Amino acid sequence: MKFDTVIKNGTVLTATDTYAADVGIAGGVISAIAAALPAESAGKLIDATGCYVMPGGIDVHTHLDMPFGGTTSADDFESGTIAAAFGGTTTLIDFAIQYKGQTLRTAFDTWMKKADGKAATDYAFHCIITDLPDARLEEMGALVKDGVTSFKLFMAYPGVFMLDDASIFKAMSQASRHGGLICMHAENGGAIDVIVQRALAEGKKAPKYHALTRPTTAEAEATGRAIALAEMAGAPVYIVHLSCNDALEKVREARDRGLPAYAETCPQYLFLSLENFDTPGGFDGAKYVFTPPLREKWHQEKLWQGLAKDDLQMVSTDHCPFCFKEQKELGKDDFTKIPNGGPGIEHRLSLVYSGGVHGGRFSPNRFVQIVSTAPAKLFGLYPRKGAVAVGSDADLVVFDPRKEEIISAKTHHMRVDYSMFEGIRVTGAPRAVLSRGRAVVANNQFVGRAGAGQFLRRNTYSGLS
Ligand code: URP
Ligand code: ZN
Ligand code: ZN
Would strands 18-26 and 181-185 be described as parallel, antiparallel, or unpaired? Predict the structure, then answer.
């Protein structure tokens, strides 16, 4: 048998197994996995000695080229997918936004154009729904048929993205009828807005007040309400960017009752805390203005334990980068004007491996489940993605569990002038990254091609098993 590429001498790492094997790739897919494949059979040879060969990471929560807060997120589909690839993520699910008065189709078409010819790796879309008259409800099924099988709804940002409970309930019923999954931004936006107005009236305008005006109770209340609405609708629900123990308890209770409730957290909630706002001058804290906000430090260990025990199913980044200069600075005199979001697409695998596996909290297999296999299964991409198996796309990462790096804006590839994780030392990082059999990162260089990424039509929801 002839292969385009053979990855030799590595340890195959999946969500369930760890074993020594060579991996043969032909026509962009994995075509053989065997104890030893002959070197002569390979057009190209990659030596993975001392490394894991794992499925490419899947980040189900990114915002590339997204207009928000009076500006646009700093990474587009080219710079964003390249930065993701440097970190071992080979598939993104981004968000196509339906603005008020628009059809869902307009949102999908707009974001397809943004990605076309730019994405270096494969991508898919969720659709954010901000306006839901009956005609739009009807459209949800058509989008599911086109492979957009999940929808994000907001319980926060009144007047911008927020939907009322009746609309949320209708959307959940409709999504589940068509095999779609609702992703929920769960924060009580009404209560938060009142707290924010009070803070502004008291002259509290520094970045840290973004965090101090969004209590954990507001996230927990909305998380519980989202789960209750989904239960009444007979629908599954996925809570995005869960940041605190109060909300985690709601998800755990629901899962203990056997409900199809799922949740992600993000690296920023695992590694950063309110202490990050204690910076000289105060405005540096704008780097950490995203929603939900940073919490007290003790929540971090609760989230790690949630990942270890499967109360949380995955880690995504909520990558929504804004430069400190000129973008975050829009809110110099008023935290409500700081565009909400932070950059993280590049360091998800290293941070989760470092804190999770190197930190002794869970196994390497659980790591693969969290960053690749669970996202692929829940969002209708498995087994094409998220697996090291014959017939799966050869989206593969040669991951060195001993490679040490210090995260810094000086060396990262995201198009943003700061890092949320500046100075954090990680153990475990990619050595080589392949997308459908093509090398995209090798020897710390991008060797892929912008535009080579393909849109992925996803399957309908079928749970996580
Ligand atoms: O602050 C954030 N998270 N910005 C992106 C939009 C969202 O709510 O996910
Ligand atoms: Zn959100
Ligand atoms: Zn987001």
Answer: unpaired
